[in-house]
Give the backbone structure.
Amino acid sequence: MLALGEVRTCLIQNQGALSTPASVALMQLIPGSPVSKVERPVRRVVSPEQVTGVDCRLHVSREGRGRAIGTVLSHAVVTNGRVLQGSAHVALLPAESDKRREWRHYLRRPGIIEVMGSPTPNNVLDGFLTDSTPARGLDLASISDRMIEDVQGSSKLDHRTALRASTAVVRWAATLAPDIVPSVGIVKSDVQNVHAIRLEGRPDDLPMLIRFCEEFARHEWLLTTVMDVIVARAEVDIGRDRDPLDSLLFALDQLAPLWMPPTYLSERMKGLWDGLESRTHYTTLFRQQVTRVRDLRDQVKIRPPRRF
Amino acid sequence: MTAVDVSYHEATETAQVEAVPFAHLSVEAGHLYLKDFADGDREIARQLEQAAPWLEAAGKRMRRRFGRNTRISTCFLVDDYTPSNSALDPPKPSEVVEIVTTAAEQAGFKIDYLAREDGCAVACERPYSGPRDQSRLADVVAGLIVEEAAVGANGSRPPTAQTGWLSNGQRSPAVAVAMDAPDWRPPEEFGEFRHSVFVDVELWSLDKSQADPERLYSCSLLAAVWQLLRLGLLRDAGHAVATPYRFEPGEGFPDLWAQLPTITQLTPNAAPFAAYQTLSLLPPHFRAAEHAAEIIIDHLKFDEAVLKQTAERALGETNPVTLPANPARRMSHFFFDDVHVTHDD
């Protein structure tokens, strides 16, 4: 079995951080469907899964073709009332029939698309990970982007940005088999803020792998935002005698507490994340950046800039 | 050092789904507009008289299956949603309850529950209910609709369900001028049939004259809500909705229909309102709306937890009931004819 997904991460368009009830109200994207909420260690509020029907060609690398029919699931996540994510995912199974079935058949298996034709799994994964914009095959980019747009367009937000930061994209593809050793391969794309992840795991690992990619996406966005946006701009500002204090404090007060690797979730998640850390030293990097932010803050306090 | 097994969960992570009681069969014995009561009991007497033999037959079949403990409930739906053109004031709830009860007695059975259609759009749990004990059920059901994917749909476009229409297949491509359309293509119903029965259902309309118009839900969508309530499948954030309300002796009915609960229980000790199977005994003009309701139900993404809970409950009965995976297959209909016989006695 294969699984594909895309996660987009950005700052929520609201001046202040959202309270818990405000986050829950914002995530109520489907009336009457329950919103999931966890307070600790970070407040994570997740919208109900939205279901999108698809019937399209897959974008297959090298050779082979496939028609995919079924439904894609997508949800939005708000962390600490600050960071917004749109996450779309789908699992691929071979179709049992060579004709499209009645809709009820596909609706009974939300989040699964059936593939007619038998393209090689690797070609399907590569095809998905390398698909262009706009997508020629399954367009999870648009689906996850719509989740973000739907939320950011809400009248419950004041649409003011506390910090100008960009949206980060993580596109992932997983091979799922019963006796597979879990593995993660991350490639930072030459396009800014885009990462591709290739994963392997057991079929029942799928929810954990989806969560892993969302957690990776949030942490990667945090690191990039603090390092490339806040620290980089502050250094430029100080050089030009402008005051960067607001964004430095924003990093310390609002972004630093969001760093919470998901090792608390399960042993298997801890295994994946520890593996990631030993290769990337993300947590060490982030701590360094936070220290750098503190240094810059102190520097600004000791010798205030002349221009405001 | 011994490793300690610690677990930590928050109750709000996954919603609890409230259970509802189930009868074996829910029979809808009739469906009338408020204006139909203008003639007193004439219309309702005719409907209930036609329903009686089929109700009896259905009861017989259920009792053969489930014995003495068969649970059958009967209900009646009053349409107070469709605006009335009549200049007359609509009859009060207390008057209608009186007419319905008497007419049912004359037809030889009892009506256990009286429901109102406007209460399917916005469920009211009790008399004079305000926003706190209301659920916008039509919005909830509309939000569960997953439209059929058009051939070629890869997720790049938003679902067109926003348009207020739902179909069971691929629409015929839009053609501006039919005469200039040499490559007209027929619509196609998806499924394993040689020929299509293509249906396009209007779910709601908007009053374009208003700046911020509210959705006016169609009979088809409200019929779907009504069937889903009877199938015990609707929840609002996990909570049971439109629970039947029983007026205490001496507690008067409200004067306005909008102040009445969605479902009023008329008889004491009635079997539960929701049931594993539903039977609707209806006049023929409801056929199209009921078909549309079935198509809507066929396009809903149900809460898995609710489906599982219902299926397990049915299997746990003394005489286990196996429910089909498709909830629409738990509904049956009987449509009357319009043939009248005049007795000459």
Q: What stands out?
A: Residues 10 and 123 of chain B are 30 Å apart (CA to CA).
